[in-house]
Amino acid sequence: MLVLAGVGLFLVLGRGGGGGIPILGGGRSDEVPAFDFVVRKARAVPTAEGADAKSLTEDADAVAKELTPILDDLFTTAFLDPGAWGDGDYAAVWERFTADARPSAEQSVETLTLGASAGDVYESVTPKRGVLSYEVLFDADGAPASVVATFSFSALGARTDGTYTAIVSSGQLFLGNPGDWRITAFEVRRDDRTARPPASPTPSPTT
Amino acid sequence: MPMPPTTAPRRRATLLVVALVAWVLGTALGTTTEGATARATPFLQLEQARAGYVPALDGSTPIFILVLGSDARPGEEIAGQRADSIHVVAINPAKHRATIVGFPRDSWVEIPGYGTNKINAAMPAGGPELVVKTVESLLGVRMDYWALTWFDGFRAMIDDIGGLTVDVPFDVHDSYSRADLSAGLQTLDGRDALAFARARHALPTGDFGRSENQGLLLVSALAQFRKEFAKDPSRLLDWVGAGLRNMRTDVPLDQVLRLAFTASTLNPKKVTNVVLPGGTGMAGGTSVVNLDRTALQAIAADLADDGLLSKANIPPSPNASLLGG
């Protein structure tokens, strides 16, 4: 009896709890997991003759505050939103690239996103960790002109076959066009690995 | 004498460290479960991929940039002094190659609107724009941009990027410029890089050899930039910042960035570094350089279409005797 109760509890908690990762499969949730990058630093790079980087530190922080929600949304769409990866529809991601960069980005769909056919592979994806640091280039008048966002991102994907994948992405995004920031250049690496199931509430051993 | 450690314990220690690192990484990614370590489930690399894009210029039309070094000392008006370092940098984005053509500072040339004079007199007469016009009339090639640095600017630029690695081709000991460098690969700070760029008394061909060494510094900077960019693309902004803080230029900032991305695609081994040949002479009691007009015309005609020089038009190195060539 205890065993049955334990198994029942395991199934309920396994499917509904544990960070929304279904342990035994059973349909994809449309819920979009919350994700926010942690910002490590924002460094100013001045270009005006004799300019001091320290005097622009606050401005660099302000740029970081402006950009971080944009990158939160970008990575959420690229990796976490079942509404996007379920259908392989990353239009909102590509819109963040300049017209010049967009064709290369779209050709790199398997590296820059969860993948075109992620809906066939994954049941759910849970964010694990996201860290950002910024270098902000200021023009001669002290206005932001270009930014490099160095990121590392990881998530845990529950696959439809019951296995798990650590989704690991890192690299640099160059952003320009301040005010309507767009990715002008990028260098991104993917290092996905098999992963063990996440720690989740498990039934107490019956003795 | 102590015995060297055997390899077996070392290998065991290495394996232990690898296992520990793997475990820590696995934990950091949240991929371990209680008691899972005993199962020794392997971590398999599922996907290892790279994606990249840089907005480099890619057309076959060459880009010509006039790079100037002012003789201005601290406190002097930078564009009001002689341009003692004059180089045309021609970039062929499609072929990922470039050419650097140095102009001896004493070249006796026609300065538009100012008669005949040494080429370095153009800047005090009309700023970088007049040097551009002078070079354009000499080469018959339109300069797209100019960039001007000066002693303190150059020194600060090199220091701001953390020094410049240069394979100094021969010993350079010059008390005038305070260059005291032995041949070989070394990282120069701003002071030493400036001394190397200024040294001419120690060179058999004087300003000709110095001009080639200045071109060598440009090639070395390209090589170092490419290496640093490949390792950490964010270094591009540091280089752009260091450059712009310490030079004046008519290149708009967005184009500077585009040129920097383009530089990341250039092969430094495919950069031809030459100095216009000529001979010394006198003009009105002044020692001048009479450019070899035949060579000048051949080089100008060759550069114009693609920014590159064919082997037949590459003049001998002015430092050939020091290079053993």
Describe the biggest sheet of chain A?
5 strands, mixed
Distance between the termini of chain B: 50 Å
Helical amount among residues of chain B, as a percent range? 25-40%
Major sheet of chain B, described briefly? 6 strands, mixed
Label the structural class of chain B.
alpha+beta
Q: Indicate how many domains the architecture of chain A comprises.
A: 1
Summarize the structure.
The complex is a heterodimer of chains A (207) and B (325). Chain A has 207 residues and is an alpha+beta fold.
Q: Could you walk me through the main structural features you see in this protein, from its secondary elements to its overall organization?
A:
The complex is a heterodimer of chains A (207) and B (325). Chain A is an alpha+beta fold. Chain A has a single domain (2-13, 36-195), classed as Nuclear Transport Factor 2, Chain: A. In chain A, 29% of the residues lie in helices and 33% in strands. Chain A is built from 7 helices and 5 strands, in the order αβααααααββββ. Chain A has a 5-stranded mixed beta sheet. The longest helix of chain A has 24 residues, at 57-80. With 325 residues, chain B is an alpha+beta fold. Chain B has 9 helices and 15 strands. Chain B has a 6-stranded mixed beta sheet, sandwiched between helices. Chain B has a two-stranded antiparallel sheet with strand order 5-6. In chain B, strands 8-11 form a two-stranded antiparallel sheet. In chain B, strand 5 (108-111) and strand 6 form a beta hairpin. In chain B, helix 3 (151-160) crosses helix 4, helix 3 (151-160) runs antiparallel to helix 6 (235-245) and helix 4 (190-198) runs antiparallel to helix 5. At the A-B interface, helix 6, strand 2, strand 3, strand 4 and strand 5 of A face strand 1, helix 6 and helix 7 of B. Strand 5 of chain A pairs antiparallel with strand 1 of chain B.
Give the key terms.
heterodimer, A: alpha+beta, Nuclear Transport Factor 2, Chain: A, five-stranded mixed beta sheet, 7 helices, 5 strands, B: 325 residues, alpha+beta, six-stranded mixed beta sheet, 9 helices, 15 strands, 25% strand, disordered N terminus
